[in-house]
Amino acid sequence: MLLASEEHQIAAILESPSAPLLANRLMIALEEEKKRREKFYHDIDDDMKVEFINGEIIVHSPVKKEHTDATGFLYHLLDIYVRIHALGYVGYEKVLTALTRNDYEPDVVFFGVEKATHFKKGHWKYPAPDFVVEVLSDGTEHRDRGIKFNDYAAHGVAEYWIIDPQDETIEQYFLEGEVYKLHLKLSEGQIRSKVVEGFAIEVKAVFEEELNLAELRRILEK
After folding, report:
1. Bridge partners of residue 126, in order along the sequence
2. 135-188 per-position pLDDT tens digit
3. Within the chain, what is the greatest distance between any pair of CA atoms?
């Protein structure tokens, strides 16, 4: 389904006498991009954190400790909770998410049972998740708030969290129609997922080890 803004772009092109030429150039460019994408799939390996975005290969630099901590702390809480309650599958960092045009490796992803039942041993390319988390870094923030924000929404990812490990905040977005709407932004208190049924944690547990362990014990004792 096209967004309203995309419908306007198409309408503007169709008003141009050069529309057939533009369409032909676009098809040639997309065919060349498709070949680069196939080569990308062939060349990547397990040691690389790399994405394919609008025809460009993005190789990620090492991240700061606070980024790694936030990703790991949330992943462990979410993964344990989901496995205990048999709600689906949780992955982190190296889960290649193949959308219509682009391939991302989000920091944390959740797939409900309907999708997760299709994942078998050797699986390496995944569909759009039901819930995505991106942890900001200096080199990725513009994509996390830009192309990824729009692409996840366009592919029906129902819930999106953006974590700022520097400011220690979590932004929670829910998909409403074709776009994300900010539900809340918290630096403390409890955050509750709408997609992962019953999953609710203290925000500080994503940033502080002792609180993370306390939340982990609470989840395990339920």
Report:
1. 97
2. 999 889 999 999 999 999 999 999 999 999 999 999 999 999 989 999 999 999
3. 67
Provide the H-helix boundaries in 131-199: 141-144, 147-154
* Percentage of residues in the chain having pLDDT higher than 90: 79
User: At 134, is the secondary structure helix, strand, or coil?
Assistant: strand
pTM for the model stands at 0.89
Q: What is the pLDDT of residues 26-66, one digit of tens each?
A: 889 899 999 999 999 999 888 778 999 999 999 988 899 99
* Residue for token pair 């991009």: 33
119's CB contacts (< 8 A; 6+ apart) are 89, 111, 126
Structure-token pair, residue 194 = 């709408």
Query: What structural domains and CATH numbers belong to the chain?
Result: 4-43 (no CATH), 59-221 (3.90.1570.10)
Q: Are 208 and 196 within 8 A, CB to CB?
A: no
- CA 25/CA 33 separation, integer angstroms: 12
